[in-house]
Design brief:
By secondary structure, this protein is an alpha+beta fold. The protein has helices spanning 4-14, 18-23, 32-58, 78-100, 105-128, 137-157, 189-197, 200-207, 220-223, 289-298, and strands at residues 162-168, 177-179, 186-188, 212-218, 234-243, 252-255, 258-261, 270-279, 307-311, 316-319.
Length: 322
């Protein structure tokens, strides 16, 4: 989300006049200058992305020989849903950029596949050489799934009729005391969540698995017969989330030499399944090229809308906004 703000500012500057608006319109034929712009920009982003992640996540941990790590059961697979989402849009964005440069459909799809795979595999290789983590085959499977969802739709339908999206609504964590097993130390779930997921809206949006829901948003208008009356801006979305996660595999952790265990009777870990409405921003069909670009960029985020939840606790809830 933090990276989205400067991107939108740049787009606004580009689209500030008539020439800028024309700049945002995809080229009808191959434009070598635009191709070079895409390649150089992509190289800079990849270098900055890889370097930034190394210094932010890996540099402070011990390195080891390359090894594997089975994290399939971690975070109730919410991290796997995140990998699918990331790989999906990391394939879609380069494809869109190459089409803007006038590159053909199939070559642009290939560019999306290669770029999305490169970004995600780089992170997995860093994991493989980190003593804290390891190369995860289940992560790679999720990455391939996300890239395939993009590529197969674009190849066979020439459009994205099923869009992978994410939403995140802030969670209010309890400030009630949680005592260590030896009764010496005390903490709270709010403090534990802060240590795990950080502070502030943007950090929590990106990291708080209890707040996130990942969605498959179906463009009903595009899936139905041509000329149907379903509104092009209204999608039906299926979502997946999970709650009460205060550790990767279970709700037990160490802090200051003390062990804390969350009462599973009060805070059981459970999964959530949603069905609801979603706003398909490109379906609003804006005429302004700048708005088309912004709507397309923002369409990887689900805008809160009414939804029905069914969870593994056997409960059913209606959410006015989810």
């Amino acid at each position: 989300m933090k990276k989205l703000i400067p991107i939108l500012i740049i787009l606004k500057l580009i689209a500030g006049n008539a020439n800028g608006q024309r700049f945002l319109v995809p080229a009808d034929t191959l434009n070598k200058a635009r191709v070079n712009t895409v390649l150089i920009t992509g190289g800079v982003i990849y270098t900055g992305f890889s370097t930034g992640f190394y210094y932010a996540w890996y540099k402070n941990y011990k390195q080891s020989r390359f090894h594997f790590f089975n994290d399939l059961q971690e975070w109730n697979q919410m991290d796997k849903a995140g990998h699918i989402h990331s790989a999906y849009f990391q394939g879609l964005i380069p494809y869109t950029a190459m089409r803007w440069a006038g590159v053909g459909e199939q070559k642009s799809i290939l560019a999306g596949i290669v770029t999305g795979s490169l970004f995600q595999t780089t992170l997995e290789l860093m994991d493989g050489f980190s003593s804290k983590w390891g190369f995860s085959l289940s992560d790679m499977a999720a990455n391939i799934t996300g890239t395939s969802i993009f590529a197969l739709q674009q190849h066979y339908w020439h459009q994205q009729r099923i869009v992978i999206k994410v939403s995140s609504l802030p969670v209010s964590y309890s400030h009630d005391p949680v005592y260590s097993t030896d009764g010496v130390a005390v903490t709270t779930l709010a403090r534990r969540a802060q240590n795990l997921y950080g502070n502030g809206f943007y950090e929590r949006f990106l990291k708080d698995y209890n707040a996130q829901v990942y969605w498959a948003s179906f463009d009903i208008n595009a899936l139905l017969y041509e000329g149907n009356k379903w509104p092009s801006w209204l999608n039906i979305a299926l979502g997946y989330g999970a709650k009460n996660m205060y550790g990767g595999f279970n709700n037990t952790w160490q802090d200051g030499g003390h062990t804390f265990i969350v009462d599973s009777n009060i805070y059981p870990r459970y999964r959530q399944f949603f069905i609801g409405f979603d706003l398909n921003l490109p379906g609003l069909k804006p005429q302004n090229p700048f708005l088309k670009t912004v709507f397309s960029a923002l369409n990887i985020f689900k805008i809160p809308a009414p939804a029905l939840e069914i969870n593994t606790r056997g409960e059913v809830f209606f959410h006015l906004l989810r």
